[in-house]
Design goal:
By secondary structure, the chain is mainly alpha-helical. A hairpin with a 5-residue loop joins β1 and β2. α1 runs antiparallel to α3, α3 runs antiparallel to α4 and α4 packs antiparallel against α5. About 20% of the residues are buried.
Length: about 180
C-alpha cells in the first residue's frame, strides 16, 4: 500500500520507497502550534477579563482582579477547547463541524463556569466581580475563539492545499507519478 499523508511523508511497506521525515519547518510549526494557541487563549481570556473589569468598575486592574474567578473561567474554557481538538494541528478549524462542536462545548463550558463561580468559588463570600464581567468573559472568549480559529483554519488550508492523498499501488509507475 502507498499513500501520501497530510504531513507530506510517503508511506509504504517497502523500506526502499519510504521518504524522509517532513521538513523541519513543518515539524517545528506542528510542535509549537498547541503551545502557541494555548498561550494566546490564556492571554485572550486575561485581556477580556481585565478589559471588562476596567470598563465595568473603572478602577485599576490590581484592585479588582480576582484570581479565583479568573481561574474558574479560564480552566474550563481551555479544557473545553482541548476537548474539541482546538489545539491539534490536524483539526480542520474552518469546517462547519468544528464550529458546531465549538458552539455545543462552549454552551456546556459556560454552564460549568457559572456553576463554578456562583456555587463554589464565591459561596459564602461577597462577589468582587459583576455578572457582566463573568458573562462577557466566558461568552466573549467562546465567540472570539471560534472566529480566530476559523481564520487560522483558512490560512492553514491555504498553505496545505497542494497536499494530496494517493491511494494507488506500489510500482515504478507510481514513483514516476509522485516524483
Amino acid at each position: 500500500t502507498f499513500f501520501g499523508g497530510q504531513n507530506g511523508a510517503l508511506e509504504s511497506d517497502d523500506p526502499k520507497l519510504r521518504q524522509r521525515r517532513p521538513h523541519w519547518k513543518r515539524r517545528m510549526i506542528q510542535g509549537a502550534y498547541p503551545y502557541a494557541l494555548g498561550a494566546f487563549d490564556l492571554l485572550l481570556l486575561a485581556g477580556l477579563f481585565a478589559l471588562l473589569c476596567l470598563l465595568r468598575h473603572g478602577t485599576g486592574i490590581e484592585q479588582i482582579f480576582s484570581r479565583r474567578i479568573f481561574f474558574a473561567i479560564a480552566i474550563p474554557s481551555l479544557l473545553g477547547n482541548y476537548l474539541i481538538g482546538a489545539y491539534n494541528y490536524r483539526t480542520r478549524k474552518n469546517s462547519s463541524r468544528f464550529i458546531s462542536e465549538h458552539l455545543i462545548v462552549s454552551a456546556g463550558v459556560n454552564v460549568l463556569i457559572f456553576t463554578l463561580v456562583y456555587a463554589f468559588v464565591t459561596y459564602g463570600n461577597q462577589l468582587h466581580s459583576s455578572r457582566v464581567v463573568i458573562f462577557g468573559t466566558a461568552g466573549g472568549f467562546a465567540l472570539l475563539s471560534m472566529v480566530y480559529r476559523a481564520i487560522l483554519g483558512t490560512i492553514q488550508s491555504y498553505f496545505e492545499r497542494h497536499n494530496v492523498i494517493c491511494l494507488i499501488g506500489v510500482n515504478q509507475n507510481t514513483l514516476d507519478l509522485v516524483k
